[in-house]
Amino acid sequence: MLASSVYYVLANVYSSINLWTILALLGAALWQWWKKPHPRFPPGPRGVPILGILPFFGKNPSKSTMHWSLRYGSIMSQRMASWDVVYVNNYETYYKCFVKNCNTLNGRPDVKLFSQIHGPNMGLVFKIPSDFCKNQKHLALTSIRRSTAQGQVIHDEFDYFFEHLKMKMGAPVDLKPLIYKFTANVISQIAIGKRFGYKHTKFNDFVSKIEHEFTDPNHAGKVHVCGFFPIMRYIPPFYQANEKFCLGQHHMLAFLRKQVEKSKVNFDPNTVNNFLDVLLHAKTSGDFKGHPEFTDTQIEVFLKEFFSGGMETTSNTLLWCVLALLHLPKYHQLIVEEIDSVIGDQKPKMSHKRNTHVTSAFLQEIWRCMPAVPQTPIHTTLSDLELGGYFLPRGTRVIGNIWAVHYDPQVWPDPEKFDPGRHLDKEGKFIRSFKIIPFGIGARFCLGELLARTEVFITFVKILQSFRISPATNPLPPLNDGICFLLYSPHQYQVVLSERN
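== Cytochrome P450 ==
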């Protein structure tokens, strides 16, 4: 009896201790989830324990964040898994962050989604700021500006593009694969000094991997979650999406590795014709000779970012342009008439923009409503920062919400409406807006901005000079809804082309 009584008492005590231990651990976890990095940290939604706000992002995380900013302010925070991320949601705060405080906000975190492929601190997008990073950026900008100056590489590639489009006339066609091959070859000639045939198997596989990198409707959302919550890479169904993403990345790098090896064999330091030549020259006989960071992997990742960034932005913008024309036949007709009147059958060039007011307004509204990258990659503060009355400790993750800047009702009345007319004055002249920032601003702006703007204008005009476009999909995908995660792209649609005289 005594023994059983003692056992009963001890069992109850042990159960009580276990219960209190569990409650204490739960309380600690809840406190860790709820507390903020600093008493003056920006306010914002906390979501649920462990996951934070991730389950509430919806189809368009940038748009959801914009709506939350109406409650919490233009500078707000969100709990994402174990991170507190600060978002800036209008032009004024964006400018203060990334221009006035560009040196403080020039850091990058280790993004496991990419570092699992090739290791940390590779390429340029997620490179930790340094003199080496700054000099590589200068090399890239110089190469892009020299190659883009006259737009000749775009005109040359369009001739091949035109012949393939002609073969598709009269029947429904999805323009996306062909546009991606076109933009890939423009980048390829600038980056590695060569183009590939549109039936080149390995090139097509490379292009397809980039095409579906962040726009696959079956996996894009899961990959996005893996980017913010690395542990999810090991849990189905995110595991399968991450595996597919990694496989695609490895295929892209393998393709570029072969191109680098071929270029090494034929490299002549006295003849530098493309971006890869510039990199090889800098590595073998230039300022970076013997630099420990200038590895072959660094060159391959840099080239991959060059291809991916240039192709994704331009391709999706052109796809949005065509879709908008199909939705707005009035503007379709006005733009064609303007092109015929101002440019005729000449080769379009950027100097034509000053006299093609409706076309320029239409493209600016595309950049506003359909930013290819709705929010910036994650920045980190390199030191403590005071911003708009809030305190951001060193290491705080900060994102610029480009979508919110472009849809700010204080700047753009009725922002959800696609209206090119908002960019024309009373005399019908184009009004350029510096508050439309699809390529970002500040120290980490997109290096390919000049190429993308040139390529979109020239290609858009040449398509309308060459073809009549009519819808083959009924109903057409809406203009106010797309596939939105790291990138923003339209849903699939088809058109019918007929040649203009």
